[in-house]
Specification:
The protein is an all-alpha fold. It has 17 helices and no strands. It has helices spanning about 1-5, 35-45, 50-65, 75-80, 85-110, 115-120, 130-140, 155-180, 185-190, 195-210, 215-235, 255-270, 275-290, 315-330, 335-360, 360-365, 370-385. Helix 5 (about 85-110) crosses helix 6 and helix 12 (about 255-270) runs parallel beside helix 14.
Length: about 400
């Protein structure tokens, strides 16, 4: 037996080393080579990153409303009138610079990584964030300095330029909800679907401020009807699967962002913060308190910094702006205190996210736990396997 064992040849272990594809520069659809750093950025920056510029633009709009003489009640007018106009202008410039930078990067992504953009459009969460760039531009337009007045021709052209893509997305996505079997609302519904509603309501407010009342009512009714359908679907858990990852739980704040924006849009349409606007404001305030009383719901999503954290900022800003308009209409101490509280919370959350983003810029651009990125990569790898 010993001799037979010694006669056997020794077992050889052969390890093959494969060279990663990252050693070679990626190529775009036309075959042009990309540098590794540029390719990495284009694969990481998806439409969800426009939450940052959206939060900046909404915060600039809040500051603009607060510094206007008729934006707050007389009791606290002297507090906000001391805010220098240059601070609001610098915030708007920062928001515009961020929006322009993200737009350029995403335009390059559409050219060099079009497969990822198509995969993003196929994703039940990623497709909703395609509304975010246009909402951000409309927020910037509404918070713009006095150089871009509502009656100017440039303002009207830009407003229509940003509203038309929103309407086209509505026709595409809302049409799929009740005509395409694999994309029924009962299957595709998730909290990020509310971004489409917010887009319609922001467009309605922009149209109302330019005097296009019929267009504003059309966009407002389209947004509020779909909000009602979405709210009932999500409230009763009619979606066929748990389609929202834990890391995206901050998007639950979109539940009260939509009625807040609805109250602001209706206020612009009617010219007064009437009963309809008050009902929507109180409903959004109730939803905010309901979520604020359940911090453990967001505990798991707060373990690692992610771009999804910016979903906390702009819903709070919408609610604060609605509180400002409510305080202006009611003119009582309780309404003023509520407006001050929500405005301070909005500003503090915004500043906190700014500092966290600056401190975690590497994690923000190099994170691999983003569910949208994972889906896009799988979609692209599957497409590459089928072509081979």
């Amino acid at each position: 037996m010993m001799e037979e064992i010694e006669c056997k040849p020794p077992t050889q272990l052969i390890v093959e080393a494969s060279i990663s594809s990252t050693d070679h520069p990626e190529k775009n659809n036309s075959g042009e080579a990309l540098s590794p750093s540029c390719s990495n950025i284009l694969t990481k920056i998806h439409a969800g990153y426009f939450r940052i510029s959206l939060s900046l633009g909404c915060q600039a709009l809040l500051w603009k409303i607060l510094t206007q003489p008729n934006g707050v009640s007389r009791d606290v007018l002297h507090v906000f009138s001391k805010l220098p106009s240059t601070a609001c202008l610098l915030l708007w410039c920062l928001a515009a610079l961020t929006q322009i930078s993200l737009t350029l990067v995403y335009a390059l992504r559409c050219y060099f990584q079009f497969d990822l953009v198509k995969a993003e459009f196929s994703h039940h969460i990623g497709v909703n964030y395609l509304y975010a760039p246009w909402i951000s531009w409309l927020a910037l337009l509404q918070s713009a300095p006095i150089l871009l007045q509502n009656s100017s021709l440039l303002h009207m052209i830009l407003c229509w330029t940003f509203i038309v893509p929103l309407a086209m997305l509505d026709i595409k996505i809302y049409g799929q909800w009740f005509t395409t079997e694999k994309r029924f609302l009962s299957v595709m519904a998730n909290p990020t679907s509310l971004i489409s509603v917010i887009g319609n309501l922001v467009a309605a407010r922009a149209a109302a401020q330019m005097g296009w009342k019929e267009s504003a009512v059309c966009m407002w009714s389209l947004g509020m009807v779909h909000y009602l359908v979405l709210f009932v679907t999500l409230y009763q858990r009619l979606s066929g699967q748990n389609s929202l990852p834990t890391i995206l739980r901050p998007t639950f704040f979109l539940f009260f962002a939509a009625p807040s924006m609805g109250s602001l849009a209706w206020n612009s349409i009617t010219g007064t913060f009437d009963t309809t606007s008050k009902m929507l404001f109180f409903f959004s305030l109730f939803l905010f308190v309901s979520l604020a009383c359940r911090p453990f719901l967001f505990k798991k999503s707060m373990r690692k910094f992610n771009v999804a954290w910016w979903a906390y900022s702009f819903p709070l800003t919408f609610l604060a702006m609605a509180a400002v308009e409510y305080s202006r209409e009611v003119k009582c101490h309780v309404a003023t205190l509520l407006m001050l509280l929500l405005s301070v919370v909005s500003v503090l959350v915004f500043l906190g996210l700014m500092m966290l983003t600056a401190a975690n810029i590497d994690r923000l651009l190099g994170g691999t736990d983003d569910p949208i990125l994972a889906f896009c990569k799988n979609k692209k790898s599957n497409a590459g396997a089928t072509t081979k």
